[in-house]
Amino acid sequence: NNGCLCWYLCVQALLTTMTQSIVVQVGQCGNQIGCRFWDLALREHAMFNDQAIYDEALSTFFQNVDARKNPPKPIPTGKAISTLKARAVLIDMEEGVINHAMKGPLKELFDSKQKVTAVSGSGNNWAVGQYRYGLEYQEEISEAIRRTAEHCDCLQAFIIMHSMGGGTGSGLGTYTLALLQDEYPDVFRFVVPVFPSHDDDVVTSPYNTMLAMNKLTDHADCVLPVENQALGDICNKINKGVQNTKLGVKPGSAMSDSKGKKKPWDAMNNIVAHMLLQLTASSRFEGSLNVDVNEITTNLVPFPSMHYLMSGLSPLYSLSDVSIPPRRLDQMFTDAVTPEYQLAKVDPRRGTYLACGLILRGNVEMSDVRRNIERLRSTMKFVPWNCEGWKTGLCRHPPLGQPHSLLALSNNTCIANTFSNVADRYVKLYRSRAYVHHFTSEGMDAEELPNALESCRSLIDQYTSIAQSQPTPPRLELI
Predict the structure, then answer these.
(1) Cα angle at 228 between 223 and 234, to 5 degrees?
(2) Whose CA is closest to 93, among 154, 32, 137?
(3) What does the alpha-carbon distance between residue 385 and residue 471 come to, in Å, rounded to a whole number?
(4) Separation CA 440–CA 448 (nearest Å)
(5) Which residues contact 10 (CB under 8 A, 6 or more apart)?
(6) What does DSSP say about strands 83-86 and 62-66: parallel, antiparallel, or unpaired?
């Protein structure tokens, strides 16, 4: 009996252990998104934590320390907040964005041991980030991650953010991803890569994107692609909504400076940050039906390489810090599976679903979820072997400024169109072998470029094959 009791207590302790995640932000884009994420995360937790107590929700992404000690002394949960430190590693081969973060309003969240920087940049060259800086800074990056991981009681996930078109984000970002797989094989690796728009002004971005995508397919557990073009369209939609309601963006808001002047990239970065807060809500707050990050990969990734999930968010207007009426619940479900609300330029309605996850926040009843799933089911094509491929999560804590919100995660064959566009841009450039010498001069094998294209086409073929699959006919029964 005593043995059974001990076993039960151990299981209960494991089930109630709060997990932590580490954010690894690489390159200019990754660090700009990171700054918005940390700002919005603090604001969100402040909304629910009016007692200034370091609780388990805060411990997911923050460590509480006594900064008067050297080194700072960790403070356990249940105690008053002293100094919060982000569970983050900041990497960039140019110092500008990280130095701005270290001197700005969020400077108390970071210390010098959390950053890895250089001064010369990667020159929009994947091979420079991968081979030159990857090898040169491997030990420094590994040590910064190790120090951050040592302060986690139960490290569950790394969230890596970087661009696909630049040199540092694509090259060093994917090098860091492979490093994490090697050193922390049991910790989930979620990647949020920002794909360039079709009119991107970086000439070598087709190479950078293709080479980085090859690494994402090989080393990530789950990839949540974001496209600049989609983010820009969403921001235009928000701005149009603001103009139609004759409301302006508040000075000092998440999307403006103290004088009310809009910041050019923060609006787009806020959307990505909001998606990450929605994704991790169940890991941070209580809910009637929590979905942990490991459940996302388990339920939405049926095959190892097909781990690319589309993100649909509703509402979007809450991101502009204006008092716009909330979306009706039923409308929110409709929005989240339509093209205008996707963070990539895709149309899930034209593809086939391998699986779909719905993560809701706020006062939403399960009966409302079931009703809307039944309503949408007829408009969504699922693979015949997973017609009931839904995963639902309910978190009772609403997002900032809205009574409820919805993140729809779709493993959908429509992502093949995005990959095809990447391949087309790559082929146009590679046909003449333009700029290849800049990559091979950094130690990259020339065969990596055609190999990356072959990997991309193989992935496209996998999704296309799924889309063309037909329902299995019912077996005849002998009477």
Answers:
(1) 105
(2) 137
(3) 8
(4) 10
(5) none
(6) antiparallel
Helices and strands counted in the chain (H then E): 18, 14
Percent of the chain with pLDDT over 90: 75
Least confident of 101-110, 149-158, 462-471: 462-471
Cα separation, 92 vs 141, whole angstroms: 11
Own/partner contacts of 249-254, CB < 8 Å, gap of 24 or more, are 249/320, 249/321, 249/322, 250/321, 250/322, 253/320, 253/321, 254/36, 254/39, 254/40, 254/43, 254/319, 254/321
Phi then psi dihedrals of residue 92, to 5 deg: -160, 145
Contacts of 322 (CB under 8 A, 6+ apart): 242, 245, 247, 248, 249, 250
Strands 310-314 and 353-362: unpaired
Does the pLDDT value for residue 226 go beyond 90?
A: yes
pTM confidence score = 0.91
In DSSP terms, which residues pair with 357 in a beta bridge? 391, 409
How far apart CA 170 and CA 159 sit, in angstroms, is 15
DSSP state of 132: I
Q: Tell me how far the alpha carbon of residue 221 is from its chain's centroid.
A: 12
* pLDDT tens string 438-460: 999 999 999 999 999 999 999 99
Integer Cα distance of 366 and 392 in angstroms? 9
E strand or H helix at 460, and its extent?
helix 448-467
Q: Which amino acid is at 446?
A: A
- Kindly state the tokens that stand for 42: 């603090």
DSSP string computed for 106-128? TGGG--GGGEEE-SS--TT-HHI
pLDDT digits 0-9 by tens, 289-341 = 888 888 999 999 999 999 999 999 998 854 545 556 677 899 999 999 999 99
Which residues, in sequence order, are bridge partners of residue 342? Answer: 312
Question: What tens digit of pLDDT does each residue of 37-89 get?
Answer: 999 999 999 999 889 999 999 999 999 999 999 888 999 999 999 999 999 99
